[in-house]
Amino acid sequence: MLVMEIYAFILLSLLAIATSIGTVLNRSAVNSALFMVLHLLTLAGLYLLLRAQFLAIIQVIVYAGAIMVLFLFVIMLLNVEEEENIIKNTRFGFIGAFMVGALLLGQVVYSLLGLAGFLPELSGQAEAIGTVEAIGDVMFTDYLLPLQVTAILLTSAVVGAMMIAEFTHADGTPQDVIEHAPEDRVEEGGA
Amino acid sequence: MISIEWFIALSAVLFTIGAIGVMVRRNAIVLFMCIELMLNAVNISLVAFSSYHGNIEGHMLVLFALSVAAAEAVVGLALIIALFRNTLSVDIRNLTLMRF
User: Fold this and answer.
1) What is the pTM of this model?
2) Domains in chain A and their CATH numbers?
3) Most C-beta atoms within 10 A of its C-beta, which of A168, B33, B65, B78?
């Protein structure tokens, strides 16, 4: 059983690292987004290893399902051309970024090594806390207010996104799906 | 059971890859995906700590972080669309208006 888990962890974590590198280094934005979808699916597998069933399902539905589809729609809408050879063009910045990244990784690992003796073993309750029942139990009692605030946040985000992305003419009138002639718009405004 | 250090190490590596991506890439959409990578790396360590302590708070935090990430992605992509309308590209090197 333990061997199976270690196998699954090694497989999933290598896949997660590989797909994240693929996301960062791919020239085409569409390929980056598809690598990202695979990355999010492997993360869902890792959540399952951590006995967080509910979060694994939510990860697949919300992230891999909804957010990445939004990304792909925007890429399709904007018709972005490929970045030509990201490594060659910004060689200096590339080396600098990797040095800063190595520094960051070293810092995180160093700060975590100090904790090495104090980290807990997997507790016996872990089987029970990841289920829909346990999360729903807490979500609708202790976390009711944050839940409502999240609902308001999502609504305002959608309304705000529509206002930002909406194309307006210089005189402030919004663009219709079928572009009217200027005299049409004046008539509508008058009526 | 796998010890928690491995999950935290994985989280650190993924966070670093995301950070390098933010520094290296010039395409605003890919930049956003790298930010999502960093967010997910932190989520892994939150879930790991929560599971190993047998405490549900971390799961709830990840759940709320996920919905905030959804809202952030929606607004960010709308900003990218507005940017594309004005400059006809999503290259962040063109955004020098507020640079001193």
Assistant:
1) 0.82
2) 1-81 (1.20.120.1200), 143-191 (no CATH)
3) B33
